[in-house]
Design brief:
19 strands; alpha+beta; 24% helix; 8 helices
Length: 327
């Protein structure tokens, strides 16, 4: 288990992110991913937890041995089996046990036939499995992953991550994983933390962060694209498109409308003229003119074939699917 209480670390010089009033608890066996832009403090946090740097204030409690996942660079001529055996750090482990460990990991990650080959004879995928095994062969309770596979092509990376996280779950290891890939974090994590400027913005399960972002930053980070600023006006809500009738709360803020909550309808939330229609990777971007004011909306990609630039259209939002984020 890892427990962080009121942790602070500041730097006088620029370029290194600090940590500010950080509170976090990670239970044993949890795969916890940390998301945030470059310079947000993710690596600083790992160094604080591991004790490599000292905090200005606060407390870190760690139950278990920590291991940083850092792949080695063996020579091209080295034998794979010998490389794995020499990767065992505990000098008290005899050669017979080292050999068995090498064979066990070759069996787990399916490169038994490559044990007698040299490093230079391996494919990229086989090499990554060998390098990964060389790290995992030294057992620990807690593993830190700091973008270890960022240099790999997408297909190799996908295979390696699937093998790695399947193994980590079987061993019930506690993992803190720094990544910039939101989709991978959503797929493999039990819990996710979003950090900005050294501050923990929100933690939760992947589904909870997608459905209930705490603030605008988290909503934008997870790809929500329809943000409508609203404020309470007697019995209606004032929006850029005029008054809307819905009941969410008594606060002002941003209404988050998921892409698939929009429908084309005559009894629409608003009507306008489509000025621009642009397909994107995860949806279609619409530029709409409503009473001489232009607004951008994101809809599911299938809407692209139903719309034409210049047409009048009415769009309705399913408000039961929307979320109001207070200002």
């Amino acid at each position: 288990m890892i427990k962080i209480s009121k942790l602070n670390k500041s730097y006088d010089h620029r370029g290194i992110a600090g940590i500010h009033d950080f509170n976090l608890e990670i239970k044993k066996g949890t795969i916890f991913s940390m998301l945030g832009p470059n310079g947000s403090g993710k690596t600083t946090l790992l160094n604080l937890i591991s004790g490599q740097i000292r905090p200005d204030s606060g407390e870190v409690k760690v139950s278990g041995q920590i291991q940083f996942f850092e792949t080695k660079s063996p020579t091209q001529e080295m034998n794979v089996q010998k490389f794995l055996m020499e990767s065992v750090k505990d000098s008290s482990i005899p050669q017979e046990k080292r050999l068995q460990l090498a064979r066990d990991f070759a069996d787990i990650f399916e490169f038994t036939y490559q044990l007698r080959q040299t490093i230079g004879q391996l494919s990229q995928g086989q090499l990554q499995k060998v390098l990964m095994s060389a790290e995992l062969i030294n057992s620990s309770e807690i593993l830190f992953l700091d973008e270890p596979f960022v240099h790999l092509d997408p297909m190799t990376r996908k295979t390696i991550l699937e093998d790695l996280f399947q193994y980590l779950r079987q061993k019930e290891m506690t993992v803190i994983w720094i990544t910039h890939d939101i989709h991978e974090a959503l797929k493999y994590s039990d819990q996710i933390g979003v950090i900005q400027h050294g501050k923990l913005e929100q933690t939760g399960t992947p589904l909870s962060l997608l459905e209930r972002p705490k603030n605008l930053y988290v909503a934008q980070f997870f790809g929500q694209q329809n943000f409508i600023k609203v404020s309470r006006d007697v019995d209606t809500w004032a929006t850029p498109w005029g008054p809307w009738n819905f009941l969410l709360s008594d606060q002002e803020g941003y209404l988050v409308v998921p892409q698939d909550a929009w429908t084309l309808a005559t009894d629409s939330t608003f009507q306008g003229t489509l000025i621009q229609l642009s397909p994107r990777l995860f949806g279609v971007e619409l530029l709409i003119d409503v009473e001489n004011k232009q607004f951008t909306l994101w809809l599911p990609l299938h809407f692209h074939n139903q719309l034409k630039v210049g047409q009048k259209l009415g769009i309705k939002a399913d408000l039961s699917r929307c979320l109001l984020i207070p200002l």
